[in-house]
Amino acid sequence: MTNAGRNGKSGNTPARPPSSPYLLQHLLPPSSRCLAFFNTPTILAYSHTTTRYPRNPRTIRHTRRAMAEATDQITTPSSSSDELQLTITHHGTPHIFTLPSTSTISDLSTAISNDLSIPSSHQKLLITPRVGLLRAPFKDPTLPLSTLTSKKILLMGSTAAEVSQITSASTTSHEQSLRRAAGGPIKPATPSRTHNLTRTLEEAQYTFHTLRPLPYLPDPSRSLALLSRLRSDPGIKATMRRHKFSVPLLTEMDPAAHTTHASRTLGLNRNRGEVIELRLRTDAGDGYRDYKTIRRTLCHELAHNVWGEHDGRFWELCRRIEREVERDDWTRGGRSVGEEVFYEPDVGGAQEGKKPEGTA
């Protein structure tokens, strides 16, 4: 074979084998050509086993162009990285918000106001786990939403139309009272639609907005039914409206995590009513506690929405709530029977004294 044939200058196909450093210089990018000479055995093995390079120079140019385009597609950032999505649950309905990745909690509040017609002043955001309850004006209005993408966000608040409806109903009721006081023939009493509407709206606002049993304990559906019964209890509902208690989360307490040799915790109130936990199950875990015992515990924890310490003001309010719940529970009568148990409330994470539940 002539020198021209060995150099690949006669004919369309170079005579050099495809693994030669000469061909690698043409196939590899300029920044990698030096590697072909200093690390020739490695490059040769790679070219033989993993890649079949074309020998036609025109095909080589097309291959380089395709490799460059593929590299550009990999390194070019996707436009989706400039946005983030958050799912907000309001009245049991999830709403998905798509916002720029640089958005803050204030931007989310504005988006909620625009999309759901809930003014910022009426918004309460319960973010779990750990962040807690946020409301406008926010303590940190620049809180990045990128830190909340893995959180559960519950929105509580009334739309402007609902607030206007409540105000209008209240005004109408007041005007009717003034007309009755001014005199005139007394007509037979008829059910008030305005009163019923106002009561319905208040019950939707002053309630336990989310119920959550512990899914890892046996029969969570029964725990959920018990929590639902507490929320629907006529005495509890009347007290919630009267004192304007709005609790974002009512959940089941894990009895194993709150039992010691000296006492057992029956209820917890975190951050003045953001979360209330109730011990629903017996210590042995083979059943559920007496309903009225659990309800008395709930009355105790509702009093912690107002007063944190177990002082005279707290016990006065606690007794009042218990009397109201008993009086307004028109579905039941008789005396409540409880066990000898102990309160050990935790308000804001602080341990407090214990009190026999059977006493006020």
Automatic annotation (TrEMBL):
Superkingdom assignment: Eukaryota
SUPFAM superfamilies xrefs: Ubiquitin-like
Stored PROSITE patterns: WLM
GO molecular function ontology, one term from the record: proteasome binding
Region listing for Disordered, in residue ranges: 1-24, 167-195, 341-360
Biased composition range(s): Polar residues: 1-13
Pfam families, per the entry: WLM
Residue ranges annotated for the WLM domain, each copy included: 199-360
PANTHER family cross-referenced by the UniProt entry: DNA-DEPENDENT METALLOPROTEASE WSS1 HOMOLOG 2 (PTHR47795:SF1), UBIQUITIN AND WLM DOMAIN-CONTAINING METALLOPROTEASE SPCC1442.07C (PTHR47795)
Protein name: WLM-domain-containing protein
Lineage: Eukaryota, Fungi, Dikarya, Ascomycota, Pezizomycotina
